[in-house]
Amino acid sequence: MFRGADRTAGSLDRRSGANRWADGRSRQKSSLIASVEKSVLAYLVTVLIPFGYLAAVDYSTPVLAQALTWTYFDIFPWNFVIFSLLFITGVSWIFWAISYSQHRTGERLIVNGPYSIIRNPKGLGYLIILVGLGMLLQSSVAIFILTPAIGMAYVLYLKAIQEPFMKHRYGATYDEYRRNVPMLLPIHIRLRR
Questions:
Q1: What is the pLDDT of residues 171-193, one digit of tens each?
Q2: Phi–psi pair at 139, nearest 5 degrees
Q3: Any residues with CB less than 8 A from the CB of 117 and at least 6 apart, and which?
């Protein structure tokens, strides 16, 4: 009887060791995925979006401005002041969000700090910076066409990819969070059903 208890305890130890190993592998895999995601995001934010935005403004603004009879904003030197204010505001939102999300374990949903105001504070920061770039370039097309187009693409990404993933990962907690906190702008828009 005592030997059988030892065998059972030994098999439980092996099973718990296998579970610990699987948990360790799972954490390692999720940290690798998080690292790749951060690298891709850093590339998008520092290289692809700014240079793509500048190229789009450079090539599309004269054509679209002429077609839509829009001109450049002639607000020199105020465009530097407005750009600086918008840039500082956007970067502040981004760093505030990063300060709350960089040490997370992924097991709990972040609902404090900037995430208590909107669900995607980094995205709002990037859009504010893009509006600031449009002001710096003095381009009405950049402000009123390109930035809203990028914003719409970002909202579609959030709806199609990020929100289903978050709902799958956090379940009812995320549903309640989504009901109480707006997606991108710090205003609540209630739709009647």
A1: 899 999 999 999 988 876 554 44
A2: -115, 115
A3: 181, 186
Asked whether residue 153 is domain-assigned, the answer is yes
Within a domain: 144: yes
Tell me how far apart the alpha carbons of residues 62 and 138 are, in angstroms, rounded to a whole number.
12
Q: Is 120 a member of any domain? A: yes
DSSP secondary structure letter of residue 139? B
Structural domain count, the chain: 1
Q: Using one digit for the tens of pLDDT, what is the confidence trace for 57-107?
A: 666 666 665 555 455 566 677 888 888 899 999 989 988 988 888 776 667
If one counts every other C-beta atom within 10 angstroms of the C-beta of residue 105, the result is: 8
The three-state secondary structure class of 72 is: strand
Is 22 inside any structural domain? no
Residue 167's domain spans which residues?
A: 56-180
Helix (H) and strand (E) counts for the chain? 8, 0
Say if residues 41 and 102 touch (Cβ distance below 8 Å): no
Q: What is the DSSP letter of 112?
A: S
